[in-house]
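Data availability excerpt. The first of two example chains:
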Amino acid sequence: MKFFSALAIICLATTAVAVPTGKRSTPPFPLPDGFPNPSDAQVIQIQQAAFGTLPNGPPPSNISTDGLTNLKLIALNELFEVAFFNELVQNVTNRVHGYDLRAGHEYALATLKAVVAQEELHALNANGALKKFGQEPIQPCQYDFPVSSFREAIALAATFTDVVLGTLQDVNQVFAKNGDDGLVRAVSSVIGNEAEQEGFYRTLLKKRPSSQPFLTTSARDFAFTAIQSFILPGSCPNINTIPLKTFKPLNVLTEHIQPASQNLQFSFAKADASTTDASALNIVYINQQNAPIVMSLQNAYEQDEQIVFQAPFPFQEFEMNGLTIAAVTKGAGPFANADVVANATLFGPGLIEIY
C-alpha cells in the first residue's frame, strides 16, 4: 500500500510542474563512478547499483560488418541515455525547481538511479563487444535536453524509449539476416529491460503501462537521426565511424495530439528541400507492425523559410496508439516495411505519441 500511495503522489506532483523554459546541459563525463571507463572495482559498484551484472558468457567468434554497425548504434544510444538519466537523477537529488516530487521523491530517485546504472551496463556491454572485435569504442558526446521539469523529462524519456524499443527490433532483424545469432539473446534481454522502464514512465504519466499489443517498429537510420537532435554539433569524437544516414529534420507542429482521426501540421526547412513541389512528396506513418501508411501533403505553403503542410492522420482506421514515426519521402512507395521507408526518406523522423 505504501508503494502505491507514493506512486500516486508522484503522478499528482508531475501535473503541477512548470512548462519548460530552456535547456540544461549535462555534466561532462567521466561520471563519479568512472563511466564510461570504469575500473574493475567501479564496474562491481555499477553492477550492484544496477541489480545485475554484465553478461559473462563467451562472445561470438565473429561478426558481420552490419552487426558492428548495430553495436556502434547501441553504444551511441546508451551513452545518450546515461547522460540523460544522470542529469535527471542530479535534478531530482538536488530538488531543482520542477523536480521536487514530495512524498514520492525517494521512490522515484531510487528507481532512476537503478536506470542510470543499467544503462551504463548496456553501454559497457556494447563497447566491450566492439573492443573484442577490434573496433574503436564509441565515445560520449555533449548533450542538451529541452526539459525543465520532472514531467517533461519523463515524457521525453517515454518517447525516446519507444524509439529504442522499435530500433532494437531492427537491430535483431539485421543480426538475424547476417548470421549474428549469438548476439540476439542479449539484445532481446535489453528490449525487455527497456520495456519495463517504459511501463514505469507511462505509469508516472497516468497512462496504461502497455501502449500496444505489437510495439511500433523502427529503422536504425531513424534512431541515429533522433539521437543527434540532443547532441551538441561537433561534440562527438567518433560518431563518423557509424555508417548510418542522418535525415533532415521533420517538425511536428501540431501539439497535444488526441486519439482521433485528424489533419496534422508539419514543416521542414525550405533550404533542405530538393523540390518545393509538394505533389512529388508524401508523408509516411509507421505504427505498430503494420504496413506503412502513405498520405499526400496538403495545403503546403512557405513561411519563414519553412515549407509548412498538413496531412491526414488516420488514427481510427488503423488504431494508431503509442508511437508513430512520420517521414517525408520522395515517391509514394509501395513501402513494405520501415527499412524501405528509411531508404526513401528525405525528412524525419517526426515522433507522434498517442497514449
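And the second chain:
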Amino acid sequence: MSKRVPADTRQAVVVYGDDQDSDESTAVLYERKGNAWKLTGTWPAHNGRQGWTTDHHLDDERSPVGAFSLTDAGGSLEDPGSRLPYWYDDNAYAAMTEDGDEHVHDFDYVIAIDYNRLKGVAPFDWNRPEGVEKGGGIWLHLDHGDGTSACVTVPESGMKTLLRTLNPRLHPVVVMGDRDHLSA
C-alpha cells in the first residue's frame, strides 16, 4: 500500500476486491502512526457492477483502480459530524433518484473520491477536468446490497465512522482496486 500513498498521508481507506470482475469488496480504514499503519475499521463493500479497471470511462460500470484523495463530503441528510467540508443539499442528491427508487437513500451521506473532479466543491458538482468521457461523480456512499455504476459503497455505520474520522489535515486517500492490481 505504501508505494501508492503520498508521503504526507496519515489516513487511507483501502478498498479491495478479490478479482478484477467482482463487484464485492472490503473497505479498511488505516491510520499512520509514525512509520506504521494501524487498522482502525473494516466493512463489507461493493464497487462497480463489472468490477475494476485501470482505464475508467463513463458508463463502463467499473470502478477506477488507483489512489485518490478524499477532500469533500455531503449528503441529503444533515452533517453527522464530518471533519471533511460537508455540503448538505437534499434536492441535489434527490434529483439523482426517483420517488420510490430503491436507491433513494444511497446518497444520504457521500464522500467524493477525487477522480476526475475539482477539489473543494460539492460532491454533486459535475465539472470533469479530464473530460466527460473519463467518467466522474465517483463516491463512497451508503451500501444498497449490490454493485454500483462505479462508486464504492459501505454500510451506514461505516460511512458515519469515515465522515467523523477522515481529517483533511491528515490528507486522507482511498486506495482501491482488485487484489492483483493493488499488489503489483
